[in-house]
Amino acid sequence: MLIAVSGGIDSMTLFDWLYEAKDALGISLSVAHVNHKQRPESDIEESQLSEKMKRLKIPFYSAEYVGAFSEEKAREFRYHFFETIMTEHTISALVTAHHKNDLIENFLIRQIRGSRLRHMTSMKSVQSFGPSIAHLELIRPLLSFEKSEFETTDYFEDASNAENTYLRNRVRNLYLPAFEKENPKFSDHLASLIAEINKAMTVVSYSARAFSGAEKIDLIEFGRELSEMQYFILQEYISQFPLLEVSKAKFDELLHIINREGQYFNAISAHYNFVKDRYYFYIEESSNSTEFETSLTPFVEGEYNQVDLPNQGQIVIRKREPGDRVQVNGIDKKIRRYFIDNKIALKKRGNPLVVVNDQIYGVLDVLVTDLSKSLKHAKIKRTLYYREKR
Which of 43, 59, 93, 116 is 20 to 30 A removed from 279 (C-alpha atoms)? Predict the structure, then answer.
């Protein structure tokens, strides 16, 4: 379990509570800290956090933010760092100290910015994190707690929280107090509204359950839905990628692309592509696209790998699809489960499959299935040779 620790009272209280309960819960803890380099005290605080974790024998990972600072860029930097640490050290859950006050502040910030209904309540106690193939979780155990309930005395006070340079600080220091002056129960009413919207979105999600968790959306099935439901199905699908921000204009464009004729492939962010083929639309990580060259005869120069194939049947090299299964060492399982069980690197999980007659004989640079192994000594067979493009 990786705890995101800034050093403030929120995250330090979270750390203290989890540290005290770790034996009872049967969990192991690690800590991740990002030094945003925005205050003179930042380096000292990072050093003291590192020393504290060293005394407690808790693994500590830190990173320094670089580049022009903005809240959005800093958030993207943090979560990319967390995802990297979790992948490298096989950690399945990220825990953050978001609490009830954050929930209310976020709602008001997104209302000011004109966010869509789904994003007004995007903070959930448990949700998937990172690429869907990574099977990581983001956990927020403090959403029912108010900041006034936090009790730790070992934390750093960020003086910049009193400044009103950033929108979040203005919401916290100016706007919410002004609304509460009009109605002391304003925050409670806002929390109630958030809960009500959550219930409404739960109904929408239930209605769209046939598409829930899908890696690809069937175009025919999608087209059968009411246009109003299509709107929310696409939102539900995009929500599987927490770090992907899609503007209203881009969202409307994607909805139009899905419903018009023709195929489509284009980058929708620095890390993701949107793809529409003849049968599906889907989002894929651009960083996972390793290209290979293949041949039915050995390459003249350089190293290469191979997959043995039956002598008859069309050879198809394609991306992984929902429901794909492989048999390896006598065990039949979904490819996704094979990747997770064998801790296959995220970058390789998008590698192409070698398929003959709808049966999978291998995943390039990842595995060779029992179907291929059984042909090793066959007199009549084909061999597919492959290597990464240089």
Answer: 116
Confidence of residue 133 (pLDDT cuts 50, 70, 90): low
Answer whether residue 329 shows pLDDT above 80: yes
**Residue 89, in any domain of the structure:** yes
For residue 7, say whether it is annotated as part of any ligand binding site: yes
- The DSSP H or E segment spanning 257 is helix 248-259
Rounded to the nearest integer, the mean pLDDT of the chain is 90
**Is the model's pTM score more than 0.70?**
no
- Domain end position, chosen among 145, 161, 195: 195
Please tell me whether 70 is known to bind a ligand: no
Contact of 281 with 219, CB cutoff 8 Å:
yes
130 is in an annotated binding site: no
- Residue 11 known to bind ligand: yes
Domain check: are 313 and 382 in the same one?
Answer: yes
How many CA atoms within 13 Å lie on the side-chain side of 117? 15
pLDDT at 347: 64
Q: Are residues 282 and 357 in the same domain?
A: no
Residue 200 lies in a domain: no
Same domain, residue pair 238 and 90:
no
Instruction: Let me know whether 124 and 182 are in one domain.
Output: yes
Does 74 fall in a domain? yes
Cα(257)–Cα(251) distance, integer angstroms = 10
DSSP state of 351: P
| Contacts (Cβ under 8 Å, ≥6 apart) of 2 | 30, 31, 32, 61, 82, 85, 86, 91, 93, 94, 95
Give me the phi and psi of 74, to 5 degrees please: -65, -40
Q: What is the C-alpha to C-alpha distance for residues 218 and 282, in angstroms, rounded to an integer?
A: 9
Cβ atoms of 251 and 259 closer than 8 Å: no
The answer on 174 and 127 residing in a single domain is yes
Task: Kindly state whether residues 154 and 235 are assigned to the same domain.
Answer: no
Q: Is 6 annotated as a binding residue?
A: yes
Q: Does 10 appear as a known binding residue?
A: yes
Tell me the residue range of the domain where 242 lies: 213-286
C-beta of residue 38 within 8 angstroms of C-beta of residue 27: no
Give the count of domains, the chain.
Answer: 3
Token reading at 148: 């006034």
